[in-house]
Design brief:
Rossmann fold; GMP Synthetase, Chain A, domain 3; 18 helices; 39% helix
Length: 541
């Protein structure tokens, strides 16, 4: 038995109850457990007719939708390897992935995606639409048996530091991680509740999102999913979730948006908020009586109202993909919405550490999940091993050998590991900047400082490898004079070798569409440096 059988059995048990609910603005389109299982059987019937053999790679191209989850399960249940692709990625890049993994078939959500990828398909690969699979007159519901070492999915890395590589995860990796995730969800949620309201907006094609999807399906727990990020606020409000998975950029935007509204408020509301925040950052003995009183009033009156605006049922948030600033995590906690951090990579089946609800340390990303061992190299790199570690990169023995050594996976992340096992992420080792001074500088903490100093700065990229000093490119609604003032403020708290000599405002934000961000909002540093090389050179003249 495997997680695939568990999911299908849980779907059938829900019968006519909704299992997946698509959010289209304020409109909700539910798919029952019975309909889900039936659709999986029809899609399997088509795949069986297509004469796909166990182990064949089948790509899945489309945005989040109920039928995405249906076809994902159908591919896996037929013993094929599902290769999920990001629907908004450049078709030529997607074609490179298809050729790399030797995909035989691409299942496309609609005709537009099919038409976009068709001219770039590698030899031996063809396309088919969702509707064709789901309209199959043949069905297949044979028992699913997956050996622990059987590959089930190939997920391509974001390519932030080079060419994307196909991470091969097997049934054993996923079975283990779903056990861990379901157990940890049970700790976080309200005891005795029959089911949770869970919202999801991140693309299913990434490891962390896929684990969240599969965890809820395995539990037989309904999942509300966003289908259009342009209506995210309405969809969140309509889903009324108890919790959902996040990336730091959204939580930063929520915080900045709320603080902007409170700053615009006049009279006692603004004063109480400012004093309450000041008091929250101090030990009780250091608090002024007026600030302590403001904090008490805010917790009783103001913060519950703010919390309700963010989500009337919201009990906690889960955050991954990148480290969340300690200030933002503390702010949500102050409102009564604890944020539990998760750290992991695609190669670790999405997770290495999760916050323990009884021992959350602000600014850290939790403790290793059971069965996962951690250690830190002399260079400060995190190494881990356990049943969550991937089988290797598809068709890339040399690249696999570089990161898997003596059973330990070399993450490439620079970390601090406390004696109690709690982990703090410093940055990527490959992102470390070494200016002419010879100092090793992690850019992410400086970028975080810039954004915290001025919420109007939306993005920041620190530069200076091999240069005489550090500089930065920033985006956002900020004037050059304001940017100079922010630099002066930030530099006061930094050692001399980390100070920024110059910063340049970029009018166009970094986005996945222009190739400057990955789909999960990580900076493509090399692409940014290449595109703005003239601007960067000007700062060093």
């Amino acid at each position: 038995m495997s997680f695939i059988s568990d999911i299908l059995r849980a779907a059938q048990a829900r019968d006519a109850q909704p299992l997946l609910i698509e959010m289209h603005g304020v409109k909700q389109l539910p798919l029952s457990g019975r309909a889900f299982a039936s659709a999986v059987a029809r899609a399997r019937g088509y795949l069986k007719q297509y004469v796909l053999a166990p182990g064949d790679r089948v790509a899945l191209l489309g945005p989040n939708a109920s039928h995405w989850a249906v076809i994902d399960l159908a591919i896996l249940a037929q013993g094929c390897v599902c290769v999920p692709l990001y629907a908004r990625q450049d078709p030529k890049q997607l074609a490179g992935m298809l050729a790399d993994c030797g995909a035989r078939l691409v299942v496309c959500a609609d005709e537009d995606l099919q038409a976009a990828i068709a001219p770039h398909l590698p030899e031996g690969c063809t396309t088919v639409l969702y509707e064709t699979l789901l309209a199959s007159e043949l069905t297949c519901d044979d028992a699913v048996v997956e050996a622990p070492d059987a590959p089930v999915t190939i997920i391509y890395t974001s390519g932030t530091s080079g060419e994307p590589k196909g991470v091969v995860l097997n049934a054993g990796n996923v079975d283990y991680m779903l056990d861990v995730t379901v157990e940890r969800i049970a700790r976080m949620t309200t005891p005795g509740r029959s089911e949770d309201r869970v919202f999801h907006y991140l693309p299913f094609c990434f490891a962390g999102s896929r684990i969240m999807l599969w965890s809820q399906l395995r539990r037989g727990n309904p999942l509300w999913m966003s289908t259009d990020l342009g209506h995210l606020q309405d969809e969140m409000r309509g889903a009324k979730p108890h919790y959902f998975l996040n990336v730091p950029v959204l939580l930063e935007r929520i915080k900045n948006g709320v603080e902007g509204k409170l700053a615009a408020a006049k009279g006692p509301v603004q004063a109480i908020y400012k004093r309450a925040v000041t008091a929250s950052r101090q030990a009780r003995a250091e608090q002024k009586p007026v600030d302590r009183a403001a904090l008490t009033i805010a917790k009783r009156v103001l913060f519950p109202r703010v919390k309700k605006l963010i989500g009337e049922n919201l009990e906690f948030l889960v955050c991954g993909s990148a480290p969340l600033s300690a200030e933002t995590q503390a702010w949500f906690n102050l409102l009564g919405i604890p944020v539990y951090q998760v750290y992991g990579l695609t190669e670790t089946t999405g997770i290495v550490t999760i916050d323990d609800t009884s021992n959350v340390r602000i600014g850290r990303v939790g403790h290793p999940v059971p069965g996962c061992e951690l250690r830190v190299s002399q260079e400060g790199e995190l190494l881990c091993r356990g049943p969550n570690i991937f089988a290797g990169y598809f068709g890339r023995a040399e690249a696999t050998a570089e990161v898997l050594r003596d059973g330990w996976f070399h993450t490439g992340d620079q970390v601090e590991l406390e004696a109690d096992g709690s982990l703090k992420i410093i940055g990527r080792l490959k992102d470390v900047i070494v200016p002419e001074s010879g100092h090793n500088v992690a850019p992410q903490p400086i970028e975080d400082r810039l954004q915290r100093a001025a919420p109007s700065i939306e993005q920041a990229v620190v530069l200076g490898h091999g240069r005489p000093f550090l500089t930065a490119l920033v985006t956002g609604n900020i004037t050059p004079d304001q940017l100079d003032s922010v630099l002066a403020q930030v530099n006061q708290a930094l050692p001399h070798y980390q100070r920024l000599r110059k910063a340049q405002l970029i009018t166009e934000p970094f986005t996945p569409d222009n190739g400057m961000l990955t789909a999960n909002q990580k900076l493509r540093r090399k692409a940014i440096e290449q595109r703005y090389r003239d601007t960067i050179e000007e700062m060093y003249r």
